[in-house]
Each structure stands twice: as structure tokens, then as C-alpha cells.
Amino acid sequence: MAAQGGFPLNVSNAWSGTKLIINDISNVEIKKLKDRPKSLVWLTVVKGPTCYEDIKFVDGKVQDSFRDACFHMGFLNDDSEYVAAINEAKDWGSGHFLRKLFVTMLLSELQLSDTELKNLTLIEIENMMQSNRRSLHEFTCMPYPDSYVTKHVGNRLIYDELDYNAEKEQKNFEELFHALTDEQLAIYHAIMDAVNKKRGGVFFLHGYGGTGKTFMWRTLSSALRSQKKIVLTVASSGIASLLLPGGRTAHSKFKIPVPTLDNSTCNIDKDTDHSQLLEATDVIIWDEAPMSHRHCFEALDKTLKDVMSKKGFQNAIFGGKVVVFGGDFRQILPVVPRASRSDIVHASISSSYVWEYCQVLKLTKNMRLRHGRDNTSSDELAKFSKWILQVGDGKISEPNDGLVDIEIPKELLISNFEDPIRAIVDYTYPNLLEKFQDVTFLQGKAILASTIEVVDRINHYILDLIPGEEKEYLSFDSIDRTDTTYNESYEVLTPEFLSKLRASGIPNHKIKLKVGTPIMLMRNLDQVDGLCNGTRLIVTRLANHVIEAKIVSRKNIGNIFYIPRMSMSPSDSPWPFKLIWRQFPIIVSYAMTINKSQGQSLDSVGLYLPTPVFSHGQLYVAISRVKSKSGLKILIHDKDNSPCSTTTNIVYKEVFEALG
Ligand SMILES: Nc1ncnc2c1ncn2[C@@H]1O[C@H](COP(=O)(O)OP(=O)(O)OP(=O)(O)O)[C@@H](O)[C@H]1O
To answer: Which ranges carry the DNA helicase Pif1-like 2B domain (predicted)?
Structure first.
């Protein structure tokens, strides 16, 4: 606080998963304004080189500097918008990113000492961070609120996991339990027996999409939560975690380091809030496990053994906990850059030592088709679903060991076209020029392709086609040479060169957008609010330093969010130096790569394959995004744009051997 000389909060690396948008904040100061008795708290935020906010609260109202900041950042164009924004700012419930920075406690009527004020402010910041599993403890330069843990919430992480209404959970459980099929019931009992015996157990629940895995997770978690037991529900991807009750990504929940190596452990020290949570946990549910590298499961195993060693479980697999994995081995396996077939298979959970302890449970009945309200006849749906599974199992054009050409059913093909891109766009987005801003029209559609180059071509084509002012955002690039020795050749690393580099997992140097463009987030910004890697949104407004967009997938549909720029670098750099991008963490998603579509549920997919798939499970994932046959069309052509009816399918059958 200014009265005490101030305390700069250096939180420049605290981005991921926090409610405070603090990635680029180089300095946060909380000051008491001495001369104005009723104006107690200012939060001054300095963000990066190009934008800043100076947000002032006086008597609980946002004052003029906020107005100036809004204009400066391009949020607002005129005074009427300002008035509307102020009215909106009174609604603290929604997710305006500026509002999340308003660490104010409307203290105007309270008589507090500087120390009390400082402590209350710190508690407020800590609360925000804890709701996203972060803490001020992570920043050594930061003060910590006095008596925060004991006086306020105990171990917040444990508290949150027990903060379920047991009666409500019991009611949920009863409804779900009575609906279980025989197959599901047997699985439920197998897992609950292990929980009740308290001797641990590792399970793998294998089932293709629609067989009821999520239904099982819901039944198990409500059973356990109604008994006040702790169940941690995680998924390998952000988008899948949104379907789990209380779900998070495994990386954030278990603090798994990136990249995860052979000898990695979770970033959880003994006798911390996190380790106490793991100790108190009864069951861990981990969905989409085949997508994660085996090193992630091994890191969790080592950490749980360490945490549970004081109870004598240092040699028990996963420290003697009940762990239930789930997923489908037909889908895309862990992505290992520049890897061979054996590298990829070797990275899978089934190649890990933890697999030896896994009891495989199988769901085989498609519950989605039984319960679907689709108009397509059930016979046709069953036939379509069987074909998808045969592609996934590699049972078409056998023997299919690895790579094989398969014939696509005629009725799924688009074969009458002159310009293939135009044809796939016309099929997937019919009457686009009339409906290009219609959110319901856009939200369930996507064109899928195997490579980033093809995806970029389609996205540019559509952006050029639709009317409206286009805004171009360029990234700031820089090179981090701290880990490399100087080399003369680095002098050729000009900005022009850097801006042409492409890497998966980071956005393009140049992003072009129009209002109405569908985009996909590439980072987990706020899992509580449903802003995950994979969340789809539609651009509603383009300002100079921020993009306003509306969520259209999964959780919090319709909510508006502001997406800021952030610093990113590829976790596995293909170059001998580390590149850092400062760019919006998004990609345009009229078209997207098949890998990005994993976990998405879509109504209409145009699969465009001028270049075939190149890895296990990609064709299966692409054709299984839709729930009905009428939602899928495939366009394949050769180098001369002549239509083809065959394409490559890749299935590494050795991964299925683990299932017995
Ligand atoms: N026993 C059941 N009784 C009634 N409905 C069920 C049952 N099991 C599953 N369902 C319903 O079937 C549909 C598919 O189930 P669910 O989403 O759990 O499958 P999934 O295996 O998780 O699929 P995906 O991997 O595609 O997410 C859902 O609508 C679910 O509510």
C-alpha cells in the first residue's frame, strides 16, 4: 500500500488458469488514497507495452480513469456505450475480464487500518486465485494474507471438494442408478467394491462415444459425493473436462509439468494443501486417458506414492488410491512431435507400467442411439454407427496393419464439383452469405482437414467471402536465447522470418477476423467459466487490444468474454531456440484440423481430404464427430482436383491388444 511504501506484485508468469488476467501485468499496486477518506482502494494494473488499465473504485463506483481506459483500449466508442458499460459493470455475476480485476471490497463505510485493508485485499486476490487452483504462495515476492488458511476456509482445496449438497447428490444418484443398464451396473459395483474395501484399485473403462462413460462418471461421483467422499474428476483435454461434474484438466488438477518426461513428478510438495487433498482423496476419475502421454500417469503414480508414504503406501500403485481411467483407443493417441509409429504406441497408457495394474471394463452398447431423438431411422443409424466402428477398429480392407486405402460409401461423398473448396464450404455452410452472423447456424458446423495448410486455405477463403470489415492482429515475436549459446546464424532471424514460422499449439503470427467469425480457444483461460483449450466462440466485437466473443460450445453457452493477448511459446520447439509469441490465444475455426476436433460434438461436418490423414485414429475421430449420417459429407480429390472415392485409414492395431 502506498502508505506503507507500496508492494509491487510481480505476477508476470501467473497466467494459466487464474481468474485474475495477470499474464502481462508487470506491476500491480494496491494503494490507499490518503486524502480521500471514502476512497480506499485502487487497483492499478499495468499491462505489457501496449495497453493498460487504471481502474479506480470510489464509494463503490468506477470512476473516470476507467472510462479513459475503456476508450484507450478501444472497448467503447462513445458516451452512450460508456453509460451502458457502467450499468453492466454493476452486474458482478458475469464474466467481463476487467471486472475480474476489480479487487475492491466497497470499503467506503468501514473504518479499517492499513494493515487490515492490505490483508483483506490479499484475501480477495487469494480467493480468486484459489478458485482456479492457484495461490499467492506461488509468488515468492508476494505477501500472503495473515491467517488465511486457518481463519477463513481451512484447506480450501479439500473444502471445495466436500462442498457438495449431499441430499442433492443422493437424489441425483438414485435417478442415475435406477437407469443403469446391466452392463453399467456391473461396472458400478466393481468400482464401488474397490472403494469400500479401501485397498485401492486401478480400472480402465473402455467404450466408444455414446456408450455411457460420462453417465458412469456422473453416477459414480454423485454416489461418492452423497457419502461425503472426495472424488477428483479430470480429463486429458479441457473440452472433455467440461462434461465432468466438477471436472478439470489432469494437468491443472495434478500440477503435471509440461513437457512431461520419464522422470517427472507432479509439482506438489509434501505437506502442502495439494498434497493434503491427494491424501484425502477416495477416487480419481480420469477421462480420455488414451490421449495423454504415459509419463503423465507415471508422474501421478510417483507423486501419490510419495504423498501416501506416511501411511505405508509408498509401494502401492497410485499410493493405494482407487483410480478409474476411461477412453477409447480408436481415437488419436498422444501427439509426439516427429514420432514414428512405435514411438506413438510406446507413449500410450497401455505401454506404461501402470497398465499392468489396470482391470479393463468394457461398455459396448450405444446409449446415444437408443436415446437419440434423431429422425433418421434407427436401422440406418445403427448401420452408420457400425461403419464408424469398423473404420476405428481397422476392419475395413483387412488386413489393415497400419495404413490402408478404404472405400468411402457413395452417399457420403461429394463428387460433383469444379472448385473443391467452394463445394465443401457450400455443403457445410449453405447460404453462408445470408447467415454468416447467425450464431445458431454457425455453432454446430465445421470443416475438418488433416493439415494446418489446408485448414488455413479454407478459413481465408471464407473470410474473403463474407462481408464486413476485417481486422488484422499481428503477434509480437521474440526469441528467448537464455538456454542457447550465441550463434552467428541467429542474425538471420529477422522479424520477417520469425513471422513465417508455424508451430502447432500456438496461434498464427497474423490473425484476421471479422465480426461473426467462429474461433477456438487454444489455452485453458478459466475452467470454472468454461473457457478451455477447445472452447468454441463467435466474435462479437473487435477492439484494438481485446476480442469480445460469445461461447457456443458446452458450458456457459451465450456468455460473453473478453480475450486478451498472452505470451506463448511452443512447449516442444522444433528450432534450436525458444520463440515467444504475444498474440490472442485463438484460431479461426470455420475449418479446423482433425486433431483439434477431438472431443467436439458437431451437427454438421464437411471432411475435406485433398491430403490424407497421417496418424492413428484421425479418420475415426473425423467421422465420429456427428450424431447422424446426414451430418457428414466427405470430399476427396487428387492433385488435379479430380474426385476420388478412397482415402487412407491408419490404425495401429497393437494398441487394442492391451484390451484383451
Ligand atoms: N443407463 C442410461 N440410461 C439412460 N440414458 C443413458 C444411459 N447411459 C447413457 N445414457 C445417455 O446416452 C447418451 C450417451 O452417453 P454418454 O454421453 O455418457 O456417453 P459417452 O461414452 O460419454 O460418450 P462420448 O464419449 O461421446 O462423450 C447420453 O445422452 C446419456 O445421458
So the answer is: 496-542
* Strands 518-521 and 586-588, bridge-based pairing: antiparallel
User: Which residue from 237, 288, 367, 388 has its CB within 8 A of the most atoms of ligand 1, so it is best to mutate?
Assistant: 367
d(CA 608, CA 610): 6
Query: Which residue out of 371, 621, 624, 628 has the highest number of ligand 1 atoms within 8 Å of its CB and is therefore the one to mutate?
Result: 371
Each residue's pLDDT tens digit, 472-500: 988 766 665 555 556 666 666 666 666 66
Asked if residue 190 has its Cβ within 6 Å of ligand 1, the reply is no
Whether the CB of 211 sits within 6 Å of ligand 1: yes
> Rounded to two decimals, what is the model's pTM?
0.76
Q: 503 CB less than 6 Å from ligand 1?
A: no
In this structure, the residue with its CA closest to atom 29 of ligand 1 is: 368
Phi, psi of 452 (to 5 degrees): -65, -35
Q: Which residue has the higher pLDDT, 444 or 489?
A: 444
Does residue 365 have its Cβ closer than 6 Å to ligand 1?
Answer: no
Q: What is the enclosing helix (H) or strand (E) of 276? A: helix 273-280
Mean pLDDT of 382-394: 91
Nearest atom in ligand 1 to the alpha carbon of residue 601 is 26
- For the stretch 46-82, pLDDT in tens is 222 222 233 333 333 334 444 444 444 344 455 665 5
10 Å CB burial of residue 600 (0-12, 13-18, 19+) is buried
Q: Whose CA is nearest to atom 24 of ligand 1?
A: 209
Ligand 1 atom at shortest distance from the alpha carbon of 216: 18
Are the CB atoms for 32 and 2 separated by under 8 Å? yes
Give the separation between CA 293 and CA 348, rounded to whole angstroms. Answer: 6
Report the distance separating Cα 270 and Cα 306, nearest Å. 8
Q: How far apart are CA 85 and CA 15, in angstroms?
A: 26
Task: Tell me which amino acid residue 198 is.
Answer: K
Query: Residue for cell digits 479418420?
Result: 619
Tell me the three cell numbers of residue 436.
Answer: 454468416
User: What is the distance in A from the centroid of ligand 1 to the CA of 524?
Assistant: 25
Which segment of 22-26, 223-227, 304-308, 589-593 scores lowest on mean pLDDT?
Answer: 22-26
Name all contacts of 115-123 with Cβ < 8 Å and 24+ positions apart: 117/1, 117/32, 117/40, 117/41, 118/1, 118/4, 118/7, 118/30, 118/143, 119/145, 119/146, 120/145, 121/30, 121/41, 122/148, 123/148, 123/152
Pairing outcome for strands 518-521 and 201-206: unpaired
Q: Among all chains, which residue has been given the C-alpha cell 491443472?
A: 252
* Structure-block grid coordinates of residue 626: 456427428
ipTM passes above 0.85: yes
> What are the backbone angles phi and psi of residue 530, rounded to the nearest 5°?
80, 15
> Roughly what angle, to the nearest 10 degrees, separates helices 79-89 and 64-72?
120
User: CB of 179 closer than 6 A to ligand 1?
Assistant: yes
Beta-bridged to residue 629, according to DSSP, are none
Greater confidence (489 vs 422) lies with 422
* Segments of 32-154 assigned E as strands: 42-47, 51-58, 61-62
